[in-house]
């Protein structure tokens, strides 16, 4: 199979993979742990909000009918019967000719139906026994009514929404302590290659520090999954199939890096020839990373990415991140933007080429700035970029000033 691969487009490959993915199960977490999670059910208000009629400003609670004749020239004077701070329960009901000094957020006393701000009274701010009202008020003017913002029983957050800081504040306001969310998917990470050593080990001749494993851990966290790092798999391992099956049984998705090409030691390429493994694709029309492979090992999907760091990063964005997002019940397709290319990219390619770069706004126009030409295996350009610039297949490429499609992975993953 490794030498007779059927090439499919990125979009076809992603569709085939996503067709086998379902959202994870639901769980309840505490409100403090819900940040960044995806709601699995609609949440309904258990009470009105505000829970009582309250003042939105500092001033005096009054009866609107008592201010009918009030003007700047002829203020109406009302007897001040008490002072109400936020958190107080009013002790005095207002009758004709009465007012209560009231602070922002405080409960309105019985009988009051309007609030006048200090600035619209005689001697504003001073504590007086009689307050002079300098203008007419209408019923419920400057009052936040009970249930005005949210009525009891109404939906305050919908399934599929991400729990952000604002939603946490909203749910806390209603005393909601547990939140139903989709379980974060567990993503297994398995590097292959006898040439790899741990990143904290001294470099030996012919060896390479394993940067992909740590990069994938960070990307999984950024995409909303829980990374599970497995021991590295040697090219000479006699139990490749058993090891991969054991890893796949422990996670929702298994991601491998390396071993997908056509070399003698490319163990993942050999694995998909096994009868028990259902191959989804093993050759994608993309540069870099065309040998990117996906398969089903039992009920667990496998994404086998290139060992090339640049191609591994690209493969994660195009295939792994969409799987994690679909498992979390989020839109899986990466957003596509249009931008003006800021530099020539004329290298020919039989497949669409995904160039690493960054976006920049110049005078309200979005520009895509490609990284300087480097080999895709170079790691020096993995930092500082925020998008992939898509250069269509063909011999001409694209020139500066032409419009191109870009995939902003920083926007997508965050």
Automatic annotation (TrEMBL):
Enzyme class, UniProt record, top EC level: transferase
Molecular function terms from GO: metal ion binding; molybdopterin molybdotransferase activity
Catalysed reactions, semicolon-separated: adenylyl-molybdopterin + molybdate = Mo-molybdopterin + AMP + H(+)
Residue ranges constituting the MoaB/Mog domain according to the UniProt record: 188-326
Pfam families (UniProt xref): MoCF_biosynth, MoeA_C, MoeA_N
Keyword Magnesium: yes
GO CC terms: cytosol
Cofactor(s) for this UniProt protein: Mg(2+)
GO biological process, one term: Mo-molybdopterin cofactor biosynthetic process
Pathway the protein contributes to: Cofactor biosynthesis; molybdopterin biosynthesis
E.C. no: 2.10.1.1
Origin: domain of life: Bacteria
Keyword list, A-Z: Magnesium, Metal-binding, Molybdenum, Molybdenum cofactor biosynthesis, Transferase
Protein family: Belongs to the MoeA family.
Record's function text: Catalyzes the insertion of molybdate into adenylated molybdopterin with the concomitant release of AMP.
Descriptive protein name: Molybdopterin molybdenumtransferase
Organism annotation: Brevibacillus fulvus
């Amino acid at each position: 199979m490794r030498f007779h691969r059927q090439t499919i487009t990125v979009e076809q490959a992603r569709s085939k993979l996503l067709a086998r993915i379902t959202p994870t199960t639901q769980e309840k977490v505490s409100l403090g742990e819900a940040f960044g999670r995806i709601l699995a059910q609609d949440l309904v208000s258990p009470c009105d909000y505000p829970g009582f009629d309250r003042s939105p400003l500092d001033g005096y609670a009054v009866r609107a009918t008592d201010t009918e004749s009030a003007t700047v020239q002829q203020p109406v004077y009302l007897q001040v019967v008490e002072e109400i701070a936020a958190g107080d329960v009013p002790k005095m009901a207002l009758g004709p000719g009465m007012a209560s000094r009231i602070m922002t957020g405080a409960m309105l006393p019985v009988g009051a139906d309007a609030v006048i701000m200090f600035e619209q009274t005689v001697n504003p701010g001073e504590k007086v026994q009689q307050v002079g009202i300098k203008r007419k008020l209408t019923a419920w003017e400057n009052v936040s009514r009970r249930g005005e913002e949210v009525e009891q029983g109404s939906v305050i957050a919908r399934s599929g929404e991400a729990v952000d800081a604002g939603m946490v504040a909203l749910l806390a306001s209603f005393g909601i302590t547990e939140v139903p969310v989709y379980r974060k998917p567990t993503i297994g990470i398995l590097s292959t290659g006898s040439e790899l050593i741990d990143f904290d080990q001294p470099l030996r001749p012919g060896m390479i520090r394993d940067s992909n494993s740590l990069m994938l851990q960070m990307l999984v966290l950024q995409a909303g999954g829980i990374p599970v790092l497995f021991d590295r798999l040697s090219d000479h391992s006699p139990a490749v199939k058993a090891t991969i099956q054991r890893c796949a049984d422990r996670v929702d998705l298994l991601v491998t890096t390396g071993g997908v090409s056509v070399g003698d030691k490319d163990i993942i390429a050999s694995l998909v020839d096994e009868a028990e493994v259902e191959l989804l694709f093993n050759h994608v029309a993309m540069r870099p990373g065309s040998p990117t492979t996906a398969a089903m090992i039992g009920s667990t999907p496998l994404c086998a990415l290139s060992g090339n760091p640049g191609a591994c990063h690209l493969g994660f964005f195009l295939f792994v991140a969409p799987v994690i997002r679909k498992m979390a019940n989020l839109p899986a397709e990466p957003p596509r933007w249009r931008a003006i290319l800021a530099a020539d990219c004329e290298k020919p390619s039989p497949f669409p080429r995904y160039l690493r770069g960054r976006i920049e706004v110049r005078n309200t126009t979005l520009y895509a700035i490609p990284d300087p030409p480097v080999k895709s295996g170079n790691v020096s350009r993995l930092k500082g970029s925020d998008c992939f610039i898509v250069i269509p297949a063909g011999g001409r490429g694209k020139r500066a000033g032409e419009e191109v499609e870009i995939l902003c992975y920083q926007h997508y993953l965050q």
